[in-house]
Amino acid sequence: MRISTSMFAALVIGLAGCASTENKTGEAARPQQPVPDKVPAVATVTPRTEVSEANDLSAVRDPNNPLSKRSIYFDFDNYEVKPEYAALLERHGKFLAERQAVRVMVQGHADERGSPEYNLALGQKRAEAVRRALVLHGAKDGQLEAVSFGEEKPDAHGYNEAAWSQNRRADLAYPVK
């Protein structure tokens, strides 16, 4: 490719204009810092910030961590939290106390027996009971929302006690990300 003399001159003039020591405001431009050939290894490590640590939910997604257990089961026609779930709710409450930016939905459920209205009310009472237990263990009230799905989202299908016992529950729904 041949460059004409006039094109070459325009290129040189254009480049010379870019090398000016004044910026658009008329102030002298700061000299650029030389770029090192090698970046120190320390500079390549991205430190975790307090915010990212405070919002880290990997523990609730790790199947080997007790916090991955997020369902609390209830007896028939009852919304009292069983003593066997006290330690689990304590762990979740403390976990949330350390991550106050995290919001959790407590979803109450009921089995299919009873009217839809009754099951919605029972599911709400179960969700509220779990929410209160979490608050007692350090979670902030504003982090938790208690909702009822009644009989609408069964975990197990079947018309027997084995299925019903799996559907009488409250689930802790942590954010997806």
Reconstruct the topology from this structure.
Elements: H1 5-18, H2 50-54, H3 58-61, E1 71-73, H4 86-97, E2 104-109, H5 116-136, E3 144-150, H6 161-167, E4 169-173
Parallel strand pairs: 2-3
Antiparallel strand pairs: 1-4, 2-4
Helix pairs in contact: 4-5
Structure report:
This protein has a domain at 60-173: OmpA-like domain (60s Ribosomal Protein L30, Chain: A). It contains 6 helices and 4 strands; from the N terminus they run αααβαβαβαβ. The model is unreliable at 39-51 (pLDDT under 50). By secondary structure, it is α+β, with helices and mostly antiparallel strands. Strands 1-4-2-3 form a 4-stranded mixed beta sheet. It is globular, with a radius of gyration of 30 Å. Helix content is 36%, strand content 12%.
Quick synopsis:
The protein has 177 residues and is α+β, with helices and mostly antiparallel strands.
CATH superfamily annotation of the domain at 60-173: OmpA-like domain
Instruction: Give the C-level CATH assignment of the domain at 60-173.
Output: Alpha Beta
Q: Which overall shape is indicated by the principal axes computed on the Cα atoms?
A: globular
Rounded to the nearest angstrom, the distance between the terminal CA atoms is: 54 Å
Number of strands: 4
Class from helix and strand fractions: alpha+beta
- CATH architectural label of the domain at 60-173: 2-Layer Sandwich
Q: Name the helicity range.
A: 25-40%
Give the oligomeric state: single chain
Q: Element order, helices and strands?
A: HHHEHEHEHE
Query: What is the arithmetic mean of pLDDT?
Result: 82
Strand content: 5-15%
Using the coordinates shown, work out and report the CATH topology of the domain at 60-173.
60s Ribosomal Protein L30, Chain: A
Q: C-alpha Rg, in Å?
A: 30 Å
Poorly predicted sequence stretches spanning 5 or more consecutive residues: 39-51
Please give the largest β-sheet. Answer: 4 strands, mixed
Strand order of the largest sheet: 1-4-2-3
Number of continuous helical runs: 6
